[in-house]
Amino acid sequence: MVSLLLTGSLAAPGLAAAAGDDLAVREDKALRAYAAATDQSQRHGRYRQARALLLTQEGNITTRVEAWEKATQQWVLGWYKVMALADLQKDIPYTQFEAELQQLLRVQHDGLLQLSNDAKSVKASADMALELLGPANPGTTPAEIGEYASVLQALTQRENELRTAITQLSAIPTSRMARLETLAQTSRQIILTRVRVALLKNARYPLEQTLASVQALLTAEQVVDPVLAALTRAENDMNRFALNLQVYHVEEALAQGRTLCTSSQAKLAALTSPAAYVAQARSRATQLCSALEAHASGLLSYGIPKADLVYESIAVEKASLRTICKSAQPPVACEKLAILAALTLPDLQSMNDAKLRFVEYGWSELFKAATHP
Questions:
Q1: CB within 8 A of 146, min separation 6: which ones?
Q2: What tens digit of pLDDT does each residue of 134-175 get?
Q3: Cis peptide leading into 274, omega within 30 of 0?
Q4: CA distance 355 to 132
Q5: What is d(CA 153, CA 211) in angstroms, rounded to the nearest whole number?
Q6: What DSSP state is assigned to residue 325?
Q7: pLDDT tens digit string along 43-75?
Q8: Cα(64)–Cα(55) distance, rounded to whole angstroms?
């Protein structure tokens, strides 16, 4: 009888059911508590990643905004050099004056373009950090982990503070770009006035002829510098795509590059003065367009199957994944890169053109996100 009671053979059916129900309730509660704890742990991990993007990791937002502000100061100082030249304080021939003015204006144009690109890059990193944080947390604590309410409330407060800091800091470059563009336009307008005043003082060059030449240069420079900057960027991109064996990038960039070259040549053809400056710009544009075509044909003319090129382009970079993604909590980009890195050559050879293109662009975008957050 004792042994029967111990084994529960004679236990009342109601008591056995109650014990089973109690176990099921406890299991369900434990599972819900585990799920809630996991969610909060992942939330804390995302907070740490977002904080690193702002403060600690290499190339963080704070460092980049500081570098942007220093570059802005140097760019503003560059206009002082332009104005000093426009005051005609240097006893040099007009041809040398014009050449120096061209160079300084190009430096200012390229500097403003770089500031704009850097501002957009900071904004992209900030958007990534804010996406990690997600929308503002209401601060409620799941009942299953209510004993940790004070800890989670403190995390909510830190998240909100971090969200505010990211938003405010990353907005600095973007919000100031309009002012810098206005400064650039105003400075160009002032150049002619300063040259006129300087000529009236010392008549270093013929007044009307010089003013007309400077005006022509300023007008042409507003066309030439953006055209050459766009072509240079397109040629550099094509060179990088070809070296990385990114065949789909090359095909798309080639089509876009040809359109850009056609429109650029049309813009430059409309310019007539200053003759030497315009001729030099046209020659440079021709060189860049030819180089763009050469980079593309250097890859496309090999006749290598696209699947092989995609495989090799990934193989070149995936060797560095372990170093790049070495972290206790790797970013989402690294997790997705690991999936793509596992693809074999037969896997890629079985894919159609659309899927291969998706793999190449997916790898490229994710690798960039992992290396340049």
A1: none
A2: 887 766 667 666 676 777 778 888 888 889 999 999 999 999
A3: yes
A4: 28
A5: 68
A6: T
A7: 778 888 888 888 888 888 999 999 999 999 999
A8: 10
**pLDDT at position 14, please?**
53
**What's the token pair of residue 194?**
């300063």
For 87, the 3-state DSSP assignment is coil
Distance between the two ends of the chain, CA-based, in angstroms? Answer: 72
Q: Give the residue carrying structure tokens 């030099």.
A: 280
Of 210, 187, 173, 176, whose CA–CA distance to 93 is shortest? 210
Please, how many CA atoms are within 13 Å of residue 150, restricted to the half-sphere of its CB? 1
Q: What are phi and psi of 178, to 5 degrees?
A: -60, -40
Burial grade of 115 (CB within 10 A; 0-12, 13-18, 19 or more): buried
Say if residues 373 and 331 touch (Cβ distance below 8 Å): yes
Give me the helices (H) in 244-318, please: 247-269, 275-300, 306-318
**Angle made by CA atoms 6, 7, 9, in degrees to the nearest 5:** 115
CA-based radius of gyration for the chain: 32
> What confidence tens digit (pLDDT) does each residue in 168-227 have?
999 999 999 999 999 999 999 999 999 999 999 888 889 999 999 999 999 999 999 999
What count of Cα atoms within 13 Å lies in the side-chain half-sphere of residue 3? 0
Could you tell me the two tokens for 344?
């074999």
Residue 218 vs residues 93, 238, 277, 365: alpha-carbon distances, Å:
19, 30, 11, 39
Structure tokens at 13: 């059916």
Prediction pTM value: 0.76
d(CA 190, CA 341): 56
